[in-house]
């Protein structure tokens, strides 16, 4: 069973809606021409700015809205992928263990900054298809 109860707060940003819009919390109309309310950048929930303070921490991130693996909190990744751990953790552990028999100090010696950046870019570009093998 991959259903875990992680509490996740919404990531609200001020938003200008095109056309009429109603608050998904109080169901009242959002008045104004610009910046009528806020939208959660992780799940897309649209609410009044004042209602955003009362919305429960029940954000269910949508994979389509997550553009990068890094610069994203781990709870968002876990909820979006419906997994116990972020896929980044699993992929990195598998790669570390596959090289572990041939590499001394693999768990205690930090990698080179350039290589770390290459791995981060691979995850941001390719997600769970990222090649984090020794070839990158």
Automatic annotation (TrEMBL):
- Span of domain Phorbol-ester/DAG-type: 9-59
**Can you give the residue ranges of the Rho-GAP domain?**
72-136
GO annotation terms (biological process): signal transduction
Q: Which domain of life is it from?
A: Eukaryota
Q: Which keywords fit this entry according to its UniProt record?
A: GTPase activation, Metal-binding, Zinc
Please give one Gene Ontology molecular function term for this protein. metal ion binding
- Check the record and name the SUPFAM superfamilies matching this protein: Cysteine-rich domain, GTPase activation domain, GAP
Cross-referenced Gene3D superfamilies, in alphabetical order? Answer: 3.30.60.20, Rho GTPase activation protein (1.10.555.10)
Name of the protein = Phorbol-ester/DAG-type domain-containing protein
Native source species: Micrurus carvalhoi
Q: What is the lineage of its organism?
A: Eukaryota, Metazoa, Chordata, Craniata, Vertebrata
